[in-house]
Amino acid sequence: MLDGLQRQLWSTGKGFFWYNPILLVALPGFAFLWRRERRVAALVAGLVVLRVVTYAKWSFPDGSVAWGPRFLLPWCALLVIPLGALWEEIPRWPRRYERTVARSIVATLGVLSAVVVIASVWVPYTQYWSEVGDPTGVSQTELRAVIDRRIDDSFNQLEDTPILVNLGDLDEGKPFPLFWFRGGPTLLGILAIATSVAASSLAIGQAASADRRRRARVATGTRSPATARKRVRKT
Fold this sequence. Notes:
By secondary structure, the protein is mainly alpha-helical. The chain folds into two domains: 2-185, no CATH class; 186-235. It has eleven helices and no strands. The protein is globular, with a radius of gyration of 22 Å.
């Protein structure tokens, strides 16, 4: 169990937060989510713990040959919820320097996460694992021991982790993001990426607009119709 938790959570080669630094913000965010929505916070925490504990006893708790701990991929959606709770709380902090420091930390972690993502798609992760599993100049009698040692180093030696190795191989990768287009880019593939970017931008814009309207209502002392009806019922 402990070995499985270590591999999934903090090992340098497969630890979840090495591959998703921005989601470190979710850990203190649970405190703010608990204060606002205790049932939601309890549900998210329960799902997070259940998944990591379940796969800690798996044959390959880290997901084996994959980019990061693939069994914990659903965490990305779950941990965005407490992350958002903290991000919404930052503007309410009274001291300006605290708000500045918090936003700077979140921005830095976001940039680091983007760098990790670029490393994962610019250089295929299969290149790393093929090098680990096919060492050159090794006899058949030594092959298994060498592969086992390399796999162990990929988990525990910082310089041998997939992220740093891929970043070091960026000059060997094909121009981003053309590697993943079989036979080169197609009109359909380009349209799919453009649609994804446009939809994400629209969602962010609508969320920002709704947040501005909410802040304006709070500043002017007005409430939404739903909130007003709720107060009437309570009265």
